[in-house]
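Dear H.,

Thanks for agreeing to be a second pair of eyes. The structure we're designing against is below in token form, covering all 619 positions.
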């Protein structure tokens, strides 16, 4: 056996740059490089390995959490066929990545997390940044990654890398198991050399499988569909990741079954397709919710049925409702005691189409869906209409950005009141045009994720839409965008606080307590003073961005046109109304105080009890 004497850091980088994926005959390198921030726990081992391999590019970021956001956004745009390795030092650099790891795992997106770890040799413990434990020496802060990782390992001896790396790749490239994979590397082991077998570094191609459905399950699915009068499809992220959107369109046209879309599934059909009822669930359209409410059969494709999709289990009110779940992950296909069809979405829909060639829902049902699609489009026109009132409403801003964005351009967002508005309103044409991280709804995802999205799709304009709260939580990656010459357009909506949690607070009787960015008022002792003097435009400018300050919709439209011509990351700021929101059409459960001295809370509790009556189990 030929061997190669390398450090763990060198061997790791060499291995990573030789990993490829192949799906449908198309081959691509799996890793686009490495993101991270050096510290004493990674600089000598992996850091040195990276320096020796400049063809595996290292990108310096400003916060380790943001590194993971960049990787997640990249993986999402690549339909999980590519990602980054994210490295950190030991201690705080490592724990900064835990939020990112959770975000990746929850959204079923692959990211390789490589935190430095404390000396395996232990003789110098406790080292700087070490968590000491009185009951075990086999614990470090990196154990915190265990519940948020789909695979977790610590390399305590160099040769362990040889058996761990194939497992890392198996999980990252598995459509059903993917998520964050953590490989903790003790700082001494990283720098130790070993005679690694040459074969470890040969080019390796991981085939992304398209598992076919079980014949009996498929037959049963056909029987259920044939017996259904009011079937509805819920298209989740799996439809897009599997590149099943064309087949879904054919199936919808062949059978007349209407389609609704989750956050991750939005874009499964173009917004103006007559079978597209649009957003489903808590942030759904009236049409989508009316149809799911009455459906006798829900066909969930690639959805994990989050509470936003099920309107906290109130979305399906037909007493005879049944579920067929087409999902590559058995974990998801069994939800709601469905008929599980564990398979890749695209091949499954292809096979299903062939077996349903004589099935079609009634013309009335098809017409009702087309009417709902049209009615909602007219409503969006109304909501997008410019009122001329200053400060502008958020919906007017969404309208202006939507109008400016080309059919292949991307809107990107994660938390606040924007996700719900975008889910309902945004007119998506291209399957990759709507990028919402709404599995973890991580504040601070946006500015960093914009970079990852642009790296994955350099030929698309990326419109990052972000509220002031999200922006203040993590705007630092603007510096990284400037460093890398990456251009995104960040539309920053400033309503001086939390429009989203403020409205939620009001709905549960808590009167927007603690949701506005205000000075502490010395008289009341509360945060009820004047608005804070924060200048977000100046902040963005100081980080190197091109900044345009808009005041109304006209100046916003001009700014968007100018931003399109720019090659530098551009931040457009605009003040928006904190209170004016878009109406909702379904419920979302947030628990309300059962006892309270406050009247508004007491009333909210009564409403809450009423809403809960519609919650159902699906057995
Ligand atoms: C890391 C994190 N902390 C807290 C929350 C809860 N949260 C959701 S939205 C939001 C406020 C967002 O503020 P902003 O970006 O200004 O958007 P707006 O609500 O004004 O639309 C908060 C605190 C979260 N989702 N993520
Ligand atoms: Mg805000």
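And this is the sequence the design step returned. I haven't edited it by hand at all.
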């Amino acid at each position: 056996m030929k061997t190669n004497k390398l450090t763990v850091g060198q061997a790791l980088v060499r291995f990573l740059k030789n990993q490829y994926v192949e799906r449908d005959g198309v081959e691509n390198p799996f890793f686009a490089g490495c993101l991270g921030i050096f510290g004493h726990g990674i600089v000598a081992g992996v850091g040195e390995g990276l320096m020796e391999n400049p063809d595996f590019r290292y990108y310096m970021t400003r916060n380790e959490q943001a590194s993971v956001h960049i990787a997640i956004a990249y993986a999402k745009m690549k339909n999980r066929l590519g990602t980054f390795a994210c490295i950190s030092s030991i201690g705080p650099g490592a724990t900064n990545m835990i939020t990112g790891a959770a975000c990746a795992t929850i959204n079923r997106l692959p990211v390789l997390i490589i935190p430095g770890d404390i000396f395996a040799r232990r003789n110098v413990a406790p080292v700087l940044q070490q968590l000491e434990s009185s009951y075990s020496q086999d614990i470090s802060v990196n154990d915190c990654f265990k519940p948020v990782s789909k695979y977790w390992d610590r390399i305590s001896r160099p040769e362990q890398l040889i058996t761990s790396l194939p497992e890392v790749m198996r999980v990252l490239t598995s459509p059903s198991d993917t998520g964050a994979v953590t490989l903790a590397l003790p700082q001494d082991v990283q720098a130790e050399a070993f005679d690694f077998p040459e074969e470890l570094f040969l080019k390796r191609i991981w085939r992304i499988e398209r598992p076919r459905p079980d014949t009996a399950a498929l037959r049963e699915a056909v029987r259920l569909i044939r017996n259904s009068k009011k079937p509805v499809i819920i298209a989740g992220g799996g439809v897009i990741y599997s590149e099943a959107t064309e087949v879904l369109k054919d199936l919808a046209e062949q059978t007349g079954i209407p389609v609704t879309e989750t956050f991750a599934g939005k874009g499964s059909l173009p917004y103006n397709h007559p079978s597209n009822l649009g957003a489903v669930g808590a942030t759904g359209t009236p049409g989508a919710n009316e149809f799911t409410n009455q459906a006798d059969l829900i066909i969930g494709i690639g959805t994990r049925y989050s509470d936003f999709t099920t309107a906290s289990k109130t979305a399906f009110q037909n007493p005879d409702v049944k579920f067929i779940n087409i999902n590559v992950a058995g974990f998801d296909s069994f939800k709601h005691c469905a008929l599980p069809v564990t398979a890749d979405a695209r091949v499954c829909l292809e096979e299903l189409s062939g077996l349903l060639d004589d099935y079609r829902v009634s013309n009335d049902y098809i017409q009702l869906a087309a009417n709902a699609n049209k009615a909602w489009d007219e409503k969006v026109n109304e909501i997008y209409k410019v009122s001329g009132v200053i400060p502008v409403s958020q919906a007017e801003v969404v309208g202006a950005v939507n109008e400016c964005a080309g059919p292949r351009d991307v809107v990107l967002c994660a938390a606040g009141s924007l996700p719900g508005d975008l889910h309902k309103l945004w007119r998506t044409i291209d399957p990759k045009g709507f990028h919402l991280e709404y599995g973890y709804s991580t504040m601070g995802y946006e500015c960093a994720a914009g970079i990852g999205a642009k790296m994955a799709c350099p030929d698309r304009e990326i419109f990052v839409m972000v509220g002031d709260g999200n922006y203040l939580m993590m705007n630092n990656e603007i510096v990284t965008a400037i460093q890398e010459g990456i251009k995104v357009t960040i539309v920053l909506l400033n309503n001086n606080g939390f429009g989203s949690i403020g409205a939620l607070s009001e709905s549960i009787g808590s009167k927007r307590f603690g949701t506005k960015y205000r000075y502490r008022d010395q008289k009341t002792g509360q945060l009820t003073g004047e608005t804070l003097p924060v200048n977000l435009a100046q902040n963005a400018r100081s980080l190197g961005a091109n900044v345009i300050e808009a005041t109304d919709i006209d100046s916003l439209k001009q700014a968007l046109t100018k931003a399109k011509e720019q090659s530098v990351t551009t931040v457009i700021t605009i003040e928006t109304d904190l209170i004016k929101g878009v109406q909702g059409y379904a419920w979302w459960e947030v628990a309300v105080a059962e006892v309270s001295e406050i009247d508004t809370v007491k009333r909210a509790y009564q409403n809450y009890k009423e809403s809960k009556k519609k919650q159902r189990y699906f057995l």
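Two observations from my side: Residues 415-418, 441-443, 467-470, 495, 498-501 surround thiamine diphosphate (ligand 1) (CB under 6 Å). The longest helix spans residues 363-384.

Warmly,
E.
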